[in-house]
UniProtKB/TrEMBL annotation:
Listed InterPro entries: Acyl-CoA_hotdog (IPR042171), Acyl_CoA_thio (IPR003703), HotDog_dom_sf (IPR029069), TesB_ACOT8-like_N (IPR049449), TesB_C (IPR025652)
Coiled coil: none
Domain of life, source organism: Bacteria
Segments forming domain Acyl-CoA thioesterase-like N-terminal HotDog: 35-115
Keyword annotations of the record: Hydrolase
One Pfam family named in its UniProt record: 4HBT_3
Species, as recorded: Paractinoplanes lichenicola
Gene3D superfamilies per the UniProt record, alphabetical: Acyl-CoA thioesterase, double hotdog domain
PANTHER family listed in its UniProt record: ACYL-COA THIOESTERASE, ACYL-COENZYME A THIOESTERASE 8
Residues annotated as domain Acyl-CoA thioesterase 2 C-terminal: 167-286
Protein name per UniProt: Acyl-CoA thioesterase II
The family this protein is said to belong to: Belongs to the C/M/P thioester hydrolase family.
């Protein structure tokens, strides 16, 4: 059995996935890594859509927000075509609409806004206190040793992002998860990224979809998979507040203010190790008991 990519090799593959081929001035095409997944990972298509949008914008303008909708599941065996519409180029802001399609149908679309650097008021909510650091919590390998039945799933995909849960992850067996109002995870891209701020924003977008909905399940002590819940992202919004590097540790501090109607809402704040608030995310997902009618 071929061992999954990890470390810099996995990061290099992620960079290849984000390196879209330009067909025309506002048309791009991207591929998905062949991991055996049944559908395209949402963070991947969102990151690729941001790459496409960013390539049509003056590089002196930096993305500060994006809002996307997952319309259909993506087919990982087929290329994804991205079409970018210029909504506006003003003196300070540029707005783009990036649409991802397969087989002539939209699978995802995003609006993204870019801004020139400006000075202004500056404050943020402090990072949570008394959270153990990334070197003080279990690695994914530690969790797999504890739950060896999860090894196959863990090894099924390249590991470009080092994810370290502060509390219980959502893929432990039913009954093994303690309920918590907070889901906190340390993350970083597990290798070196280029210095391009757009690449770091796209990598953070990719990572932001890895554990956010998990906070909805955490409130109830629920888990993913058999005996628990299946889910899918419906929409995703992300705001970038301050400069950062996605290949340095950040704390993803997530919570769920509401769940009803088979939908759960989650929000997350991202902090650097020194406590700077670098980004915020909000996502709604479809959540159903395993075995319920789709």
């Amino acid at each position: 059995m071929t061992r999954p990519l990890s470390g810099q090799a996995a990061v290099d593959q992620l960079l290849e996935v984000l390196d879209l081929k330009q067909l025309e001035a506002a048309t791009f095409v991207g591929e998905s890594p062949q991991t055996g997944a049944q559908r395209v990972f949402g963070g991947q298509v969102a990151g690729q859509a941001l790459v496409a949008a960013g390539r049509t914008v003056d590089p002196e303008r930096f993305v500060h927000s994006l809002h996307g909708y997952f319309v259909r599941p993506g087919d990982p065996t087929e290329p994804i075509q991205f079409t970018v519409e210029t909504i506006r180029d003003g003196r300070s802001f540029s707005v783009r609409r990036s649409t991802a399609q397969q087989h002539g149908k939209t699978i995802f679309f995003m609006s993204a806004s870019f801004q020139v650097l400006e000075e202004g008021l500056d404050h943020h909510t402090p990072a949570p206190l008394e959270v153990p650091g990334p070197d003080e919590v279990q690695t994914m390998a530690d969790w797999v040793r504890r739950y060896p039945s999860r090894k196959a799933a863990f090894n099924a995909a390249p590991r470009a992002v080092d994810v370290r849960y502060v509390n219980d992850p959502g893929w432990v067996p039913p009954g093994d998860r303690n309920a918590s109002d907070q889901q906190r995870v340390w993350m970083r891209v597990d290798g070196k990224l280029p210095d391009d701020p757009l690449i770091h924003a796209c990598a953070l977008t990719y990572a932001s979809d890895l554990s956010l909905l998990d906070s909805v399940l955490s409130v109830h002590g629920e888990v993913w998979g058999p005996g628990g819940v299946i889910g899918a992202s419906l929409d995703h919004a992300l705001w970038f507040h301050r400069p950062f590097r996605a290949d340095e540790w950040f704390l993803y501090d997530c919570a769920s203010p509401s769940a009803s109607g088979s939908r759960g809402l989650a929000n997350g704040r991202m902090y650097t190790e020194d406590g700077r608030h670098i980004a915020s995310a909000v996502q709604e997902g479809l959540l159903r008991r395993v075995g319920e009618r789709k």
